[in-house]
Amino acid sequence: MSDVLKSAYAIYSLKCPSLFYFRQKSEAEESNLKTIYGIRDIPSDNGLRKILDGIPSEELREAFALLFSRIKQEGLLKDYYYWNKHLVVSIDGVEHFSSKKISCPHCLQRTHRDGSRSNYHSMLSAAVVCPGEKEVFVMDNEPIVRQPGEQKNDCELNAAKRLLDKLQLTHNQELMVLTMDALYACAPLVCRINENPNWRYVINAKESSHQALFEQFDRLNEEHKVHWEDIKTAEGTYTFGYVNKLSLNDSNRDVLCNFLYCIWTNKKGEEKIFSWITNITLSRKTIMPVMRMGRSRWKIENEVFNTLKNQDYNFSHNFGHGEENLCTNFAYLMMLAFTVDQAQQRACKYFQAILEHLKTKLKLWEAVKAVFRILPCESMTELYGKICKMYQIRLDSG
Asked: Which helix (H) or strand (E) segment is 73 a member of?
């Protein structure tokens, strides 16, 4: 089982396009898989899929908490405590498998306009982000799959409740600001977050789905009870309107939230409008950080999901679906490999120097695979060192 897990992880770490590609090995690759990844015997394709399919996803999921603890221990999060020593945690869903032919008991189903059906798997991811910081670190992932004994599809809201329960269990001491899109601006999620004294939220709100909230804001604005502030920056001007303690909606008048309305005008005069609900008290001091935390929600889409889709992680490739946990376990291993890469990008001087020299991640992965195929190495550090030597990249002596 250890060799299976390490082999499956190495597939994503090395950006292999298929299991077949992974099995075609030179002597150097054989050696590097043993010394760098600690793999003694590489399993067959079918053996890997069968064993990985039988591993409970919850057990593999524990690796995210362990990896997060190591990232924190190494000091990589010291610049990520953004507002009042809180980590900003972006939560969003992503679909990682879809097929009209392949299915398993956990698949969700979607009916198309032409009457055909497709089967799919999704998961809800939570990642530490920070305004002004490029790297993101995945904390946890909750599968959005058909639940045991259920006939109906699972949904993001139910998955969000389970994810929050898991975050509270594994990271209860962390001060967090949870940022989410408008789907989650509902009473059950807001109340659930409010139950934890260490949590705050900044959730997108849309007029189309939160009409009562915007009507309250407009009415108070007519009564001159909305606070307005203009804040100029080098990039343009922010015009904020904010008010505290509005009812979330007509059905939940006792569920109160604070509302921030933002008009962003760039130097060309072009405008964009944003709006959020939050349980952070809004004032002139807090409106800018709340806005920046709200807008940083996009980092999970841009820096996590788009990176996985476009930078050789083979996100859309089906390495195997299985009957139990294979699909989810492959997605977990991909997220683990991505998070390790983010940690290296944040802290490894070799990784940073190579990326600066080669300009793109795709070229960096190509260089890693090229050296991995032909030169035996004792560690990834030695492998990076050989890439630096090959490209004549000088490292800062510090």
From this structure: helix 57-73
Asked if residue 99 lies in contact with residue 321, where contact means CB atoms within 8 angstroms, the answer is yes
Contact partners, residue 224, CB within 8 Å, separation at least 6: none
The pLDDT of residue 158 is above 90 = yes
**For 357, left (φ over 0), alpha (ψ -120 to 50), or beta?**
alpha
Which among 182, 177, 213, 198 has a CA at the least distance from the CA of 290? 177
Domain assignment present for residue 383? The answer is no
**Gap between the Cα atoms of 180 and 185, Å rounded:** 8
233 in a domain, yes or no?
yes
Total of domains in the chain: 1
CB neighbours (10 Å) of residue 171? Answer: 20
Give the helix/strand (H/E) hosting 88.
strand 86-99
Q: Around Cβ 289, how many Cβ atoms within 10 Å?
A: 18
pLDDT, tens digit, 9 for 90 and up, residues 34-66: 999 999 998 999 999 999 999 999 999 999 999
Question: Please, are residues 125 and 91 in contact by the beta-carbon 8 Å criterion?
Answer: yes
Whether 103 maps to a domain, the answer reads: no
Packed helices 326-347 and 2-13: angle between N→C axes, nearest 10 degrees:
60
Count of positions (residues) in the chain: 398
Alpha-carbon gap, residue 289 to 199, rounded angstroms: 16
257 located within any domain: yes
* Residues spanned by the domain of 234: 204-288
**Does residue 134 contact residue 175 with C-beta atoms inside 8 Å?**
no
Query: Residue 143's beta-bridge partner residues?
Result: 123
| 97-106, 142-151, 358-367, 380-389: least confident range | 142-151
Sequence-separated (6 or more) residues with CB below 8 Å from residue 152: none
Backbone angles phi, psi at 280, to 5 degrees: -85, 125
Measured CA angle at 337 (ends 335, 342), to 5 deg: 90
Question: Could you count the other beta carbons within 10 Å of the beta carbon of residue 381?
Answer: 14
